[in-house]
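Input/output pair, single chain:
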Amino acid sequence: MRFLRPSFLRRPRAVLLALLLAAFAGPAAATDPTSAIDPRSIATPAWTNVDVVLREGPGNVYDVTGEVAGESRVGVWRCHYRWCRITGPGGQGWVSIDYLSFGQLPGGPFSGPKLDYPAGGPGQVCFYTGRNFSGREVCSKSGTVVRDLVLYDLDDSFASIAVEGNVSVMVCRDFDFSSYCKRIVESQPSLKGFLDHAISSYRVY
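Output:
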């Protein structure tokens, strides 16, 4: 099934009016990284594991721009190597990724139980662009690694996942298995929360 793409507007007046309104709206209409963080916003939701110092750039050599208390909800706008630019209750700036955790609740990188997940096959994982296993289908067997779905024109496309056989899949909100990730061991007819139309990389076990 091919993706349906919105057609261009056929009314030049409507286009001109929209451009004029955008121009007069000014900077307030743009996405403001200093605004309150919404888990469904463009920023990736995260938590601070400890009290952190924010810096102007990705490294300790940069000046301090603020501080954020531990276990605070923040939004991650981008990451560069081991540093991420965030916005939180103490301002915006760069912090080491080692001080962040990605998920529904705060927790360090090694928190939570160690579970015996299905792996090795036989079986497959199928992704669907529609809910209840509908729309375009993409299936992968154990051992498949996809670091960036944007290369396949499938970034932020999946709405449901079917797990068949002795396999499981780790899906991540950002490319190269970064930010919020979740191991899925059973079929999900409707993805919820941070992964709904927001998967950018995955690995099938």
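The mean pLDDT is 79. DSSP finds one helix and 14 strands in the chain.
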